[in-house]
Design brief:
With 180 residues, the protein is an alpha/beta fold. The chain has a single domain, classed as Rossmann fold (3-Layer(aba) Sandwich), CATH 3.40.50.880. It is 33% helix and 21% strand. Strands 5-2-1-6-7-11-10 form a 7-stranded mixed β-sheet. It has a two-stranded antiparallel sheet with strand order 3-4. Helix 1 packs parallel to helix 5 and helix 5 runs antiparallel to helix 6 (168-177). It starts with a strand and ends with a helix.
Amino acid sequence: MVYLFLAEGFEEVEALTVVDLLRRAKCEVTSVSVTGSKAVCGGHGITVMADALFEELSFHNAEMLVLPGGLPGVTNLQAHEGLMSLLMEKHASGVTLAAICAAPMILSRLGLLKGEKATIYPTMQEELSESVYSENMVVKSRNNIITSRGPATAMYFALALIEELKGEAAAENVKNGVLL
């Protein structure tokens, strides 16, 4: 199961592209609100209904945890102590963590990207000062973390997540289906 976390001010393109493409690949994806309400307003005024509330779930079956970017969405995700604990716990148990745009900042501040190759939205590069910064659209570290740069890379990010979960053929099938 893939869990994608939503907070007020999230980047709609990044969140919805990931959910859409993963579902096209027949991945089980649950969007999770950390706001206490299933209705979550993105950074550009688009309100999305999350599948579940954070406090309703146990996350025992997590294969991957995904953090979309956007500000103040990332700041609001980082303020959720339960999510920060979950990220640390699941990373320690080998669950893949994925973050796009500004969200790699969260993983960096948790110390999970120290010495690892990663990327982030270009104006936030200083947030990866303890990482090996890459300008690639999508970067997979040695420690089960996948990062990406921003809204324009959301499809490539989603395809990398599909490849991680279902293999190269599944990612290629979705890629061809969306004419990328």
